[in-house]
Amino acid sequence: MLDTDFDADQEALRLVARDFLAATVPLGSLRGPDYPHDVQPTFASETWRAVADLGWLGLGIPVEYGGGGAGLTTLCALYGELGRALVSAPCLEVAVVAGGVIASAGTEQQKTELLPELCAGRLVVIPTLVGENGEIDVRETVTSAERTDEGWRLTGTKPLVAYAGSADLFLVPAHAGGDAAGDVSMFLVPAAAPGVVVTSLPSMSGVPLSAVELSGVTVGADAVLGMPGRGMDHLAPAMLRGKVLRCAEIAGAGERVLDITVAYAKQREQFGKPIGQYQAVQYLCTDLAMATRVTQLLARQASWILDEQAPHENRVRAALAYGSDAARQIAHCSHEVLAGLGFMVEHDLHLFTRRLKHWEMDLGDAGHHSRLLADLLGASAAS
Amino acid sequence: MLDTDFDADQEALRLVARDFLAATVPLGSLRGPDYPHDVQPTFASETWRAVADLGWLGLGIPVEYGGGGAGLTTLCALYGELGRALVSAPCLEVAVVAGGVIASAGTEQQKTELLPELCAGRLVVIPTLVGENGEIDVRETVTSAERTDEGWRLTGTKPLVAYAGSADLFLVPAHAGGDAAGDVSMFLVPAAAPGVVVTSLPSMSGVPLSAVELSGVTVGADAVLGMPGRGMDHLAPAMLRGKVLRCAEIAGAGERVLDITVAYAKQREQFGKPIGQYQAVQYLCTDLAMATRVTQLLARQASWILDEQAPHENRVRAALAYGSDAARQIAHCSHEVLAGLGFMVEHDLHLFTRRLKHWEMDLGDAGHHSRLLADLLGASAAS
Amino acid sequence: MVDLRLGYDDWRAEVRQFLADELPPGKEFYLDYDEAEHKWDFAVEFTKKVSEKGWIGLTWPRAYGGLERSVVEQYILLEEFHRAEAPLLNLIGWSLTAGMLLYGGTEEQKATMLPEIASMKTIWAEGLTEPGAGSDLAGLTTSAVPDGDDWLVTGQKTYTTFGSRSDLLLAIVRTDPSAKRRHEGLSFFGVDLRAPGVTVQPLWNIAGGRQNHIFMDQVRVPASRLIGEVNRGWEYITRSFYTSGVPFLRHSTMERKYRLLTAYCTTAKRGGRLLIDDPEVRGKLAEIDIMMEVQRVLAETGLSDTVNGRRSDATSIYQVLAKESIPRFAQLAFEIVGPLGQLSGESPYAALHGELQAWYLQAFGNHAAGTPQIKRMVLATRGLGLPK
Amino acid sequence: MVDLRLGYDDWRAEVRQFLADELPPGKEFYLDYDEAEHKWDFAVEFTKKVSEKGWIGLTWPRAYGGLERSVVEQYILLEEFHRAEAPLLNLIGWSLTAGMLLYGGTEEQKATMLPEIASMKTIWAEGLTEPGAGSDLAGLTTSAVPDGDDWLVTGQKTYTTFGSRSDLLLAIVRTDPSAKRRHEGLSFFGVDLRAPGVTVQPLWNIAGGRQNHIFMDQVRVPASRLIGEVNRGWEYITRSFYTSGVPFLRHSTMERKYRLLTAYCTTAKRGGRLLIDDPEVRGKLAEIDIMMEVQRVLAETGLSDTVNGRRSDATSIYQVLAKESIPRFAQLAFEIVGPLGQLSGESPYAALHGELQAWYLQAFGNHAAGTPQIKRMVLATRGLGLPK
């Protein structure tokens, strides 16, 4: 029967997650060690272990490989809360993107060896996706893989990798010798392999970012994930699912920003009345509320479509375009309302602002998904 | 010395025009004969004669051909008032576009024969510019001109010609036999020539629009205006000047819409106070005011740049893009404030709404000029 | 469990078949803005056929002429009708009046008035707005005073769509002039628009439609036409109007327009290429698509919340976004189509059969039943709890 | 006659030459958001060089350390400085304080304080905002009571840029607690920031800059530091702040950013082509260009109105559009550049030398000196005469 809301189990998961994260991940924990001059949080290793122990890392991984076998709609419930808490750990990167690719493209052996470890939080596999100049289309990657006697030699730079410092393995898309233009092969590269250089980069993003350089890194033949040249078959769906959950995170963060913003608007007075009585402020608050709620609903719908394999690719793209832009709008509206207060590091708002900017662009920004939607619509109109 | 305002002479012209038009062109005169079912105004022939007698048609035409020899900045003062009054006559089409092309491209004989008559209002030369599917790029015209023994034979349709029913001559851009792709030749075609069919078309526009079909219309060799294939050299600048003055008209109309809107916002009460006290209404009114004032300033600046031949092509394009979009915004904001009242034919607002929509798109809409601006910026960045 | 299937596929197919049979091409289009004689006649005929199927009171109790079907089936019915832009008449009758009767009407009123609506015997017009009272009903001056068993109604209503075509006016009037608070002392009447003392004056709107001034001078209304009880008008309007269960489906009417627009883009060329091959045009289509998707998901959420018995915030968001998207849609369509969109009528030069200019002008009617600004205010104060 | 030439070409060339000589690449950038030691030192040194040219008090009377040059020359000077994003210090000194002194200062104050500003002897910080009083000064609680020839100032100011770097705080305080209307009984003092009783606490902003809380506990201020006359503070701030003649040139600071951005677009490729060859990117650049043009024409109109002795509406429009364009610009730049714009610092991976993320974060500081919403209110009520 039609129901746009979570069922009892999903709702229970959501509430457990909210309570657990509220108790264990206070916003203060996101401030860097040299606060206020360093606002870059570090990998939250304790949270990571807890999240793994609770079974959340493996939630979407098939049961036979140590996971929970849950669908995207259930993950939506969880990621909304991870977003709300601004958890500083690569749950989505590892569990959804990398885990999703391994579960989809891996050999039986790879899946059996890697996935249980990944679910347990003991194996951190970090995808390296963004290319030169911030290229989000993985097919345009300039990282190359040459055949060698024992396996492959990889060369190239991924300039923007989140949580690279915590990686055991990198998931690296590259052009292999035999690939046709635009085809991509996927490799699993040990972070400790000779020739891998990880450079931590300062940023505004609220997540640890690094450049990962591969200078002729040699890996074995078994480092290939899936058929050479067919990487996008597995990577594209995993990135799509990842961005859907990013949108769930954006909505989760948006809910908390909305609470902060509305509470302030009710309390702060200017010219003798609470600023929340001014329509200018009301418009900002309603924009924020609508962006948040719509993103949440669209993400949930996109999850259902992907779980059901329903034929609504355009609706999924619309969700991603909308949700990415919502991230921008949520931060913008809240800052306009909070003005000076929100501009100060003392206040928690900027923690959301930073992360929202990162999430807006991560796995493709609004323009990227709008263009893909536009192409879909063009193709369907022409047919 | 720096002065963004009109000088005393220009200001005097503006005030004379305002008073004259207020007295002779009441808004009621714009309502069609079968009001309220017919809202299409007809050619205001009395106004036309008066405008000619006052020397306003010839104002920008060289003195030696019966004109006033004024620059665009002076015309700005006049067209602001023509816009404010919503004068229903093709002043800009005839005097600025057609007149400008003849003055620029015509032979001495053509200029001597045509321009004094045009200035006197006795010769109505109507440009036919919009092509199939609303194409605004004249170089894409599908109207063709074949060489004959005595002159040329023209074939093609111009689907959207304003005031065609009042024309003595049509200014027709066409592809002549020898033209390279994109080149255009210009012809003067008598409206009464055999094969010319003018079909009046109903529209929302607030100006009389027609389709002009040319079915093998033959004209003499002297009907060519300027060198064959070089039409754009003369037409493009005339269209540019025409759109600058359209923007002046938009600003003029906007001033009057602003007066109407602010007066209503002060007087109409809802929930116990004037709606103008609500910030939502204040935002709409300020949007309207800003769009109007900025359009006026940009049009004046663009006029000065063209008069001075100053090297600021991007500023002229920016003015046209901004002003075209302002036309949309002026109507939108006012309707949002006036709500039900402005939705009724009884109220004068829709007279502005219609004309503003026409002016928004006439001689290129905001998108068209933005794209040209973008190309200019791209070229200048790359160089 | 999250499940976005509406279900009832057979029912949807039945509705679609009905529309395919009864709504020939060229007869769609939004009647509100053009009640020319032949259009009105077709709409009456069409609505009577809907009535014969029993679909007007689809969800009502059988005792009152209904079929007791689910709200999801009603949603599907109306979604298909909106998508087809079917000229279904008497919205005020089957939504506003019926909702109010079901909530507060006397048993006798329910038993007589509802079947009359279901069978298209009576067509109702809306009588809320007055020259001095729009969204704020505090300024209402139309009054009713008792006179024997009847009431005498005096005052003016305005912007009344179909005022000259309807049988009854659902009029809100002051019945207790001494009430202290401005929303007290109001009652609803069904005023016979042909009764002595009623004068209907046309009020033409810029989209070519007719609204009306309704002048009432001592119009005699029997007590049986007082809806429910006296002085409870404010309760009735707030409880039944906003919760009458009739879904919001403005976005579905956008779908047909969107299809016309994309069809145009696949045939019309500009600058030597098909419009659909221009990334900028496709980008504008994507913006429209997102607009429709957002509204659809909100509408379905509202429906889901109703079905599952939850309080819903989705409909108040829907109303803001739907209102604000109307002018935006019209503008985007114009930017895509260009200047030929100005033409009306059926000339071969008019893009989209002359419809686009109507969309644009109709968009200035987006204040009807509350301006976008009022909808924002409702969301901010009732939805988010910001101070009034 | 309409004439958009600013003239003074030689003067502009002189200013440009000065900047070319004194402002090496990498030393531009907006200091407000980063007063790291080496940046501050360079800025002091740079501003002293400007001071040595006599350009700080360019338009002031010679008697007070000025050069009596025209406002057009001052506009040109500042336009070039803004375009270069030159780290010119003491804005509060040479604009707000100087404007107030010239309007209402005593002859002695003009003769002593203005030359000290012109020669960079004193740096001023702004002391308007309090925790409970932003754009609305009604909530001010800082007070001064007379004590012999001196005043004792007690209270807190906040969001004070350069509070730890400045010599004097231009503080507005209550001097008549019995004043009936909320804007009466206010006075301005120049409070020595090193005086006993002053505590400066850092307040870090998200763009990496430092603002400050200034706590004042019975701080002794000599009567000579009471600006002008007692209880005339409201008059001084409204008459001199908004009309001090210092032009608005935010758009000029956008120009350098725009140049960096276009330069990036001509070298960076995405999807196999240069960004500048992507029509969507060019469209965004065009939007920025229009933004800058609109502000420039408004700024020049304001200048023209000043020069020609006319009342101007251009500056209040300018302020609305400039404030609103700041976040829009930052967003457009991010959309063009993409995710590498998040990186800060000088790493080779950071797009635009790591500046873009700073533009984005700085944009959230667009409330300073009045939120965009306040500027709208000013335009609506003072500009259009709509009711407050």
Write down the CATH class of the largest domain in chain C: Mainly Alpha
Strand content of chain C: 5-15%
Uncertain residue ranges of chain A: none
Order of helices and strands of chain A: HHHHHEEEEEEEEHEEHHHH
Task: Output the structural class of chain A.
Answer: alpha+beta
Number of strands of chain C: 9
Task: Give the N-terminus to C-terminus distance of chain C in angstroms.
Answer: 37 Å
Interface with most residues: A-C, 50 and 51 residues
Mean pLDDT of chain A: 95
Low-confidence stretches of chain C at least 5 residues in length (pLDDT < 50)? none
- Shape assignment of chain A: globular
Q: Tally the helices of chain C: what do you get?
A: 11
Radius of gyration of chain C: 22 Å
Brief overview:
Chain A has 383 residues and is of the alpha+beta class. Chain A has helices at residues 8-24, 45-53, 72-85, 91-105, 108-119, 231-267, 279-308, 313-338, 349-361, 366-382; strands spanning 125-127, 144-147, 151-162, 169-176, 185-190, 196-201, 209-220, 224-225, 269-270, 273-274. Chain A has three domains: 8-123, Butyryl-Coa Dehydrogenase, subunit A, domain 1, CATH 1.10.540; 126-225, Butyryl-CoA Dehydrogenase, subunit A, domain 2 (Beta Barrel); 232-382, Butyryl-CoA Dehydrogenase, subunit A, domain 3.
Spell out the blueprint of helices and strands.
The complex is a heterotetramer, with two copies of chain A (383 residues) and two copies of chain C (388 residues).
Chain A: H1 8-24, H2 45-53, H3 72-85, H4 91-105, H5 108-119, E1 125-127, E2 144-147, E3 151-162, E4 169-176, E5 185-190, E6 196-201, E7 209-220, E8 224-225, H6 231-267, E9 269-270, E10 273-274, H7 279-308, H8 313-338, H9 349-361, H10 366-382
Parallel strand pairs in A: 1-4, 2-4
Antiparallel strand pairs in A: 2-3, 3-7, 4-5, 5-8, 6-7, 9-10
Helix pairs in contact in A: 1-3, 3-6, 3-7, 4-5, 4-6, 6-7, 6-8, 6-9, 7-8, 8-9, 8-10
Chain C: H1 9-22, H2 37-52, H3 71-83, H4 91-104, H5 107-118, E1 124-127, E2 143-147, E3 150-157, E4 168-174, E5 186-192, E6 198-204, E7 210-222, H6 233-241, H7 250-265, E8 269-270, E9 273-274, H8 279-307, H9 314-337, H10 355-363, H11 372-383
Parallel strand pairs in C: 1-4
Antiparallel strand pairs in C: 2-3, 3-7, 4-5, 6-7, 8-9
